[in-house]
């Protein structure tokens, strides 16, 4: 162990660098957690001017059409009646690479949707996977650093990735998904999208429901094998961008069915898993998918920079009838994402055409870089005032939410009851076809063979323990692929 104390930028010693400060073991995160804010704020400013994550992406405009009545669960106006259409802008992306990286890298894919509603813009910001590598935003910058470049060599480093994953077994579920062929989608049109986070619906009776959103591709799932993806990286690193543009321009408009899982608010207290844990899924047998509508992309933006590069998404942007949850990763992103956009595009980024709400926007924000329009003209820039100026509307207030009566502390995110990292990944692997299992093991082995350095054996053995605990066939296949003799007794006790 080192004698060096971890501190904040101002020199304040840090007592816990693993867990956010929460009201009770399941959150929510407190705004007073300055160390979390400092970590995320510094992380958001590490690169200029491209996005830190999701730097390379493709986008298109389209529409969302309501096909089923779910007004019993939400009063959101965009879902108010069957047949109602709402304009959308969607941006797909890879997560870990830079702007010039290849579209077919093994990586999760971002799946961000901006709904231009009459109650403001709603950003549903997710991925093509229903889970993520970590469950607390406190670890987000640490994780992303392992996916970027080695600070010495400026090259990608497999040892960094697998070291982090092996030290954070909560990542196993997402690691396994990314190591299947779903980690290399054929195109953006042939993948699902997920909110991943748990959000909430609020209905006209002010009743709350916990929800997860699923965009189900109507083009069917289609993936590259590892070899095919590597070949395409050499042939056309912009394959997914080109595929999306060409499909829309020839009238082959991609579509997704938006479905939602709905959990009554009280169920969260007694459900067998933490419903706000981003590394877990809700089994469909318990909470089946319910149809909501169809999203269609039918317009290629006329200028990529103006409408895709400058598009800014943030899970903080919700509308009446849709709310947050105690999901610790979501709570961190609520603060972090708008902060990242203000840094990248300026404090007035929501005045840019692609981000501007097409309906009424009234506030007291003034000045700052790139203030567009008349900057509020001669209207007051303070509230309350004696003039005919915007005022709050109490009818939009959310119903109160009871917090845990636990003490405020940095709770271990993987404490007993929150530390089953193996059941869902193991179930996922056993659901794969025999061919998919072979491909997944091949992809893992190919990646782990890139681990080098003095800690290579330690990192590999630690990760093998996780694979064995998830599924014996998975662990055995990876060990054999790495030409490691198998001592099941040793792996079972590590």
Automatic annotation (TrEMBL):
UniProt region (Disordered), positions on chain: 1-23, 372-401
InterPro entries: Catalase (IPR018028), Catalase_3 (IPR040333), Catalase_AS (IPR024708), Catalase_clade1/3 (IPR024711), Catalase_core (IPR011614), Catalase_immune_responsive (IPR010582), Catalase_sf (IPR020835), PTP_cat (IPR000242)
Any one cellular-component term (Gene Ontology): cytoplasm
Cofactor field: heme
GO terms of biological process kind: hydrogen peroxide catabolic process; response to hydrogen peroxide
Gene Ontology MF annotations: catalase activity; heme binding; metal ion binding; protein tyrosine phosphatase activity
Tree of life domain: Bacteria
Key words of the record: Heme, Hydrogen peroxide, Iron, Metal-binding, Oxidoreductase, Peroxidase
The protein's Enzyme Commission number: 1.11.1.6
Reaction catalysed by this enzyme: 2 H2O2 = O2 + 2 H2O
Stretches assigned to the Tyrosine-protein phosphatase domain: 113-297
Family: Belongs to the catalase family.
Protein name, per record: catalase
């Amino acid at each position: 162990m080192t004698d060096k104390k971890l501190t904040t930028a101002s020199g304040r010693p840090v007592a816990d660098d693993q867990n956010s400060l929460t009201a009770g073991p399941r959150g929510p995160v407190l705004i007073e957690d300055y160390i979390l804010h400092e970590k995320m704020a510094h992380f958001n400013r590490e690169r200029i001017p491209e996005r830190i994550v999701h730097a390379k992406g493709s986008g298109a405009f389209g529409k969302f059409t309501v096909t089923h009545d779910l007004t019993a669960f939400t009063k959101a106006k965009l879902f108010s009646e069957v047949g109602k259409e709402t304009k959308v802008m969607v941006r797909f992306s890879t997560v870990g690479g830079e702007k010039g990286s290849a579209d077919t890298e093994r990586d999760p894919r971002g799946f961000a949707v901006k709904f231009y509603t009459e109650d403001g813009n709603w950003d549903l910001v997710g991925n093509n996977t229903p889970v993520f590598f970590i469950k607390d935003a406190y670890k987000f910058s640490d994780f992303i650093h392992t996916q970027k470049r080695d600070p010495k060599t400026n090259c990608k480093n497999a040892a960094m990735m697998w070291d982090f994953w092996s030290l954070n077994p909560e990542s196993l579920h997402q690691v396994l998904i990314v190591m299947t062929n779903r980690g290399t989608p054929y195109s953006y049109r042939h993948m699902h999208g997920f909110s991943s986070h748990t959000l909430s619906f609020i209905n006209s009776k002010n009743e709350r429901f916990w929800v997860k959103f699923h965009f189900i591709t109507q083009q069917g799932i289609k993936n590259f094998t590892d070899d095919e993806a590597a070949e395409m990286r050499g042939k056309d690193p912009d394959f997914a961008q080109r595929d999306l543009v060409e499909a829309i321009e020839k009238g082959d408009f991609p579509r997704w069915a938006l479905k939602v899982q709905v959990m009554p608010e009280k169920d969260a207290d007694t459900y067998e898993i933490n419903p706000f844990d981003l590394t877990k899924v809700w089994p469909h047998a318990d909470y089946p998918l319910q149809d909501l509508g169809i999203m269609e992309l039918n317009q290629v933006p006329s200028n990529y920079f103006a409408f895709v590069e400058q598009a800014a998404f943030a899970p903080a942007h919700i509308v009446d009838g849709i709310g947050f949850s105690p999901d610790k990763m979501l709570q961190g992103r609520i603060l972090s994402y708008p902060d990242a956009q203000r840094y990248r595009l300026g404090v007035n980024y929501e005045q840019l055409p692609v981000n501007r709400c097409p309906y009424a926007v009234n506030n007291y924000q003034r000045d700052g870089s790139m203030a567009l329009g008349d900057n509020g003209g001669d209207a007051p820039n303070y509230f309350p005032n004696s003039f005919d100026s915007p005022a709050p509307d109490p009818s939009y207030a959310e119903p109160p939410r009871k917090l845990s009566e636990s003490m405020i502390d940095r709770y271990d995110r993987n404490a007993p009851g929150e530390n089953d990292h193996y059941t869902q990944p193991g179930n996922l692997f056993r659901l794969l076809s025999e061919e998919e299992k072979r491909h997944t093991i091949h992809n893992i082995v190919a990646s782990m063979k890139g681990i080098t350095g003095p800690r290579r054996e330690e990192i590999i053995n630690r990760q093998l323990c996780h694979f064995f605990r998830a599924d014996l066939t998975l662990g055995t296949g990876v060990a054999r692929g790495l030409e490691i003799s198998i001592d099941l007794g040793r792996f079972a006790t590590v």
